[in-house]
Q: What sequence folds into this?
């Protein structure tokens, strides 16, 4: 055997796995089904608005992954015709580790910002197209009002008279759901967008934030039953993946000032989109 020579396997064995390879037909099918289920529950205006918000959120993540050459899937939309919203949202799969905190932060925050930039004008338009109506005496659902919804309602309709409520236009309802989805994703827990941002800013100390936020979700579940499913899902995620965020190679390197400012903006987005009681059932009001 000659020294200095290395025998390599055939090219098709050792070549790197191609990135960004998807079963496009599956993503298209799920999208078309979600168009159908959201149209069914809320009409065309609702369907177009909610798909724009969810789609931009996920494509924000996707294009950030493409920028950093981090292998990720196209968005998977989740059609559910029997729910109030016609969908459980959308997600992408990131199929390789994210190496640095800067990459993690940018990928994590790109989705909420992209969705928020679509949801805000949709909300103001939807509230403007809504109408004030007397509160009925039949059973129904009451939607909690995030700060941004309260601001838009006050801007267009002023103080709400006693015994009246704002009946949201389908575009407004889609924006409301988009804000709720943004708030849920920005919870600083585990593998959520907020968890990525928290880890990028705080490093290993983000584990304490994750544990504390689980306590917050338990408290919210006591306040409103609409948080119970979310809390169970978060606890299940922690049992599956553990409370510690996967480490990056630069865990102890602080983020730059620009990204720290964006982290503050993420906290502001969460505050504007959050409501402590998203959905409540009203009886004989």
A:
């Amino acid at each position: 055997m000659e020294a200095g020579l290395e025998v390599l396997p055939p090219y098709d064995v050792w070549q790197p796995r191609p990135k960004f390879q998807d079963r496009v037909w599956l993503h298209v099918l799920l999208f078309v089904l979600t168009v159908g289920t959201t149209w069914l529950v809320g009409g065309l205006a609702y369907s177009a608005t909610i798909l724009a918000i969810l789609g931009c959120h996920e494509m924000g993540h996707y294009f950030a992954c493409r920028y950093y050459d981090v292998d990720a899937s196209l968005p998977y939309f989740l059609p559910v015709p029997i729910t109030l919203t016609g969908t459980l949202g959308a997600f992408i799969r990131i199929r390789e580790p994210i190496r640095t905190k800067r990459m993690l932060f940018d990928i994590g925050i790109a989705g909420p910002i992209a969705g928020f930039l679509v949801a805000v004008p949709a909300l103001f338009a939807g509230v403007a197209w809504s109408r004030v109506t007397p509160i009925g005496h039949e059973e129904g659902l009451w939607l909690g009002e995030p700060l941004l919804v309260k601001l838009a309602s006050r801007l267009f309709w002023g103080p709400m008279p006693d015994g009246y409520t704002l009946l949201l236009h389908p575009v407004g309802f889609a924006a409301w759901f988009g804000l709720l989805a943004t708030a849920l994703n920005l919870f600083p827990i585990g593998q959520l967008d907020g968890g990525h941002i928290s880890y990028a800013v705080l490093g290993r100390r983000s584990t304490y934030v994750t544990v504390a936020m689980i306590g917050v979700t338990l408290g919210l579940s006591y306040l409103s039953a609409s948080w119970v499913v979310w809390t169970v899902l978060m606890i299940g995620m922690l049992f599956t993946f553990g409370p510690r965020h996967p480490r990056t190679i630069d865990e102890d390197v602080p983020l730059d000032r620009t990204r720290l400012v964006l982290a503050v903006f993420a906290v502001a987005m969460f505050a504007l989109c959050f409501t402590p009681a998203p959905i409540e059932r009203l009886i004989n009001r």
The chain is about 55% helix and 10% strand. The chain has one domain: 20-282.
